[in-house]
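Could you help me review a protein record that somebody else here produced? What it holds is a sequence and that sequence's fold in token form. I have pasted the whole thing underneath without changing anything:
=====
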Amino acid sequence: MKVKTILVSQPEPKVENSPYFELEEKEKVKIDFIPFIHVEGVDSKEVRMQKIDLSKYTAIILTSRNSVDHFFRIAEEMRYKVPDSLKYFCQSEAVAYYLQKYVVYRKRKIYVGKRTFQELSPLIKKYKGETFLLPSSDKLKPDVPETLDELKVNWKQAIFYRTVVSDLSHLRHVFYDILVFFSPSGIQSLFENFPDFKQKDTRIAVFGNSTVKAAEEHGLVVNIQAPTPETPSMTMALQKYIKQVNKK
């Protein structure tokens, strides 16, 4: 079956040159963006109940833009003046770049990984003497605590925000040729919103092994998968699939 419509379970990209917009134009398909999950911050009272005293930490590990936003939000709510000496360990360049929203980049000690958490770990290991705080959501990838424990560093996780299932009731009678998922939480949201969901002719595209596993556990057939050596990005995987089925 040909592909005409795609639903991406994430917010719409804010950049004009997003590869999704290029895909839409090149392959003449319609792409909608609707987040299946969203983030809600916890308040400072709940953070205190986790026995978190921000002044006790000399380094912050930031794995996403959300972790950046919510760390500085909690610091403000707690009336904690973030010291200039604080070290920032950012999982990727995108996270480090986003940090500029809150700090003067050149005046801070910022250490940047390439993309994955494992690629950040040598930098963390180099500064084993620091006391690390990991602001995160309630859904933390297991490789993060595993890696930190293996490094034998002094660290603590603090839940500063939660991943919450979005209300998708407005999609009940809407059909898309492809549904695109990036996390197990997105799959969970689909079935929490539509417990009786049947895949039928809908193609399922997933990013990452944990998302594949979640999809299969829910009885879904995965038709499109990324990253692979041939298609490292989701848009590349979608384009390859669309070219195959639409030329028939």
